[in-house]
Amino acid sequence: MEAEGTDAPETLEGDHDEVKRLREELSKSKQRLKEWREKTQAGVTELRNRVVELSTLLEESHAKNVMLEERIRDMEGVAGSSSPFALEKLIAPEGWMAEFTNTSHSTFLMKSDVILGVATTVWQDLEKHKRRTAQALRLQKKNVEAMEQEVCELRQMLTRAQDEVHERTRAVESRDEALTVLQNRLEELESASVSSELSRMGMYGKPNAEQLNAFEDQLEEAREGVRREFALRESAIFDQHRDEMERLIARYEREVAELRAELDERAFAAADSCGARPTASVGDRGELGEGSDKAYKELMNNLRTLQEELRLAQDEREKLQCEVRALKKNSVMSLSCGANTGMPERPRPQTLPEALSRITELEGSVTRLSSELCEARKRLITTKQKSGAVRGQPNVLVVEGQQLAYLKFVVVKLLCSNGDTNVAMNLFPVLNTLLHFDKENLDEIYTTNPGWLRRKY
């Protein structure tokens, strides 16, 4: 137990280093995501400008083609309505113009085909990037939902572990009270033994010494029996407490190791998903940025919450270990005390009737002290509970209130289940007396079980 207590700070430092490393990896992943967005925006802007430029060139080529066709039709109309003399004059220019028109038309068609091919390629690349971006967004959404579910499960596990630690703490406190009562009883018996020893020394050598020696032997046997009983109970309490603490610490360390492994897996999965994400279009950039920022903020908040809960659990473990060490130290000191305890010397009896009267008085005083010890123990426990409830345990009261509310909810669900209705019906008045169900709980129970007799509570 002490070795585990000394290793606790090293484990805490290792956890802080691991959390710091995960935080640095998240910062790097966020920086890479920002650079990837900037590059994606620049690439999409360049592609859009290229598409606009090619579309402008294509429209200009179509306009030139239309203008040339209209000019050719005009020239053909003039040639058909002119005289033969004018026709002869226009033969030579018409042939040259037709050749020029055909050549220009072929050139513009070739340019148009090239521009259309480039525009088609750019459009296909843009559509491909859009599809990849949509797929990456779907994968990222699934990963974020899975991480949120894992965080909720881990938080529930940690809450259950903290509740169990609180229960074990209360058990340790009750054992401490029992041990204190046993120690007080042992001190009282030691005092009575010392008193009887002094009386024996005063009556030593007087008449009827055999009876006094027999009574002394009986007292010694009773004292040894009480010592053995105290030693056995103390050993059993310490063994049970040690086993319980070792089990709790081992379980806590397993949960911390599982939590650390799950944090590593989630961080690596987030880094891989950010590194393998393809280029997105301008239209999807805003949606991707908002979703990613929100997911990262939620993950960071969950990480901070888990770190705080981990720190509280470690502090609780340190407190329990300190209490165990203090309990062992006090028990060793209590076993060594009592040997030097003395009682004020009383007048020695001078005759046999006085000795017998003194023996009877001692036996009655032992019986009376035992009964007073039991009553004092009860009053001490009651006083401690009242003083602790009034002065210094608001958190314990809050936890007990929460547990009582949870117990009410569980019992209501148990009574509403389809189990043995006779057992539930017989158990319901006792539970209502202990837990004081409110009107809503009673209505729900009687509605679910219409065959039960409705009583006034």
TrEMBL record:
Signal peptide: none annotated. It comes from the Eukaryota. Residues 1-12 have a biased composition (Acidic residues). Residues 130-269, 296-330 form a coiled coil. InterPro entries: GRIP_dom. Residues 1-20 are annotated as: Disordered. The keyword Phosphoprotein does not apply. Keywords: Coiled coil. Residues 402-443 form the GRIP domain. This is GRIP domain-containing protein. It comes from Trypanosoma vivax (strain Y486).
